[in-house]
Amino acid sequence: MNNILRRVDLNLLVTLDVLLAEQNVTRAAERLHFSQPSVSVHLAKLRDIFGDPLLLPGPRGMRTTARADSLREPLREALASLERAVSPAAAFDPATADNTWRIAATDYSESTVLLPALCGMRAAAPHTRIAVLEINPPRLAKQAERGEIDLAFHITSPDTDNFHQQPLFTESYVLVGRKDHPRLKRRPTLTQFCALEHVIVSPDGGGFFGPTDERLAALGMKRRVALSVPHFLFVRSVLATTDLVSIQPWGLAKHWPELRTVAPPVDIPGYEMSMYWHERVHRDPAHRWLRESIAQAISAS
Q1: Alpha-carbon span 204 to 80, nearest angstrom
Q2: What CATH code is assigned to 100-170+272-300?
Q3: Structure confidence by residue, pLDDT tens digits, 85-105
Q4: I need a labelling partner for 175 at 20 to 30 A (CA). Which of 26, 39, 68, 152 fits?
């Protein structure tokens, strides 16, 4: 098969399709906007390739051989499939789409990125589905390349690894504790802050050191981290029921009305949250709609 395909010019197959339909070289030339001699040359090459005359002289033009008849339907289907493959991508219609989107996110980005966009996306594309997968930064590039995920929400990074990225918002930190926490009635001093017992979110699991601790270390100070957890949702429950406190992103803490938030006594650098996607889906109309929907929802929130 490969040897045959290497010998066949696509134009020859288009000519053959028209010849089989018209069974007349002159009419075929008119349809193809070729000269009659050019179509005759194509027919000669086709006869050589298939080892069959394909079209024979008849009383009213030409008649097809048995080999030509066997080619007619598969050739028409193959050319139609090829035409669909090379045609411009169809416009995406969210109202009728049934895509399943796979998004890698933490529970933080579920709440701060996906949740604000969810209602609008459901209204515009009611038949689509969203699967949220636990984010694994070291595997993101491979997952995206294989089509296992469509989007990821993560802190902006200069190392994009074949990813496109779009910044969504910048985040800052606040100190959070229970509503009636006796030491959060006002902003604590740095010494008071370090004396509190803290809970930290460690996405990799088990970490007791983060950006806050880096800033404190630069000042020659240290806090006590009593609890390390992998998810933000559990922190909310811990803070509501204990005297533990936590440095949390403001975008998340502002939705915890049962808790108290105060400015931390130490300057903790914030970060930028971005949306990531792979080059393989960059120009896909459906994927573009997904990204634009999320970005618009975030800018409006």
Answers
A1: 51
A2: 3.40.190.10
A3: 777 767 899 999 999 999 999
A4: 152
Residue indicated by tokens 């609008």: 120
Q: Quick check: 287 pLDDT over 80?
A: yes
Q: Say which CATH architecture domain 2-86 belongs to.
A: Orthogonal Bundle (1.10)
Q: Which of 253, 252, 245, 201 is nearest to 224 (CA)?
A: 245
Closest among 245, 240, 155 to 195, alpha carbons compared: 245
| Placement of tokens 């069974």 in the chain | 23
Residues 124 and 293: beta-carbon distance below 8 Å: yes
What is residue 87's predicted lDDT score, i.e. its pLDDT?
A: 72
- Asked if the model's pLDDT at residue 11 lies above 90, the reply is no
8 A C-beta contact, residue 15 and residue 43? yes
Q: What is the dihedral of CA 55, 57, 61, 65, to 10 degrees?
A: -30
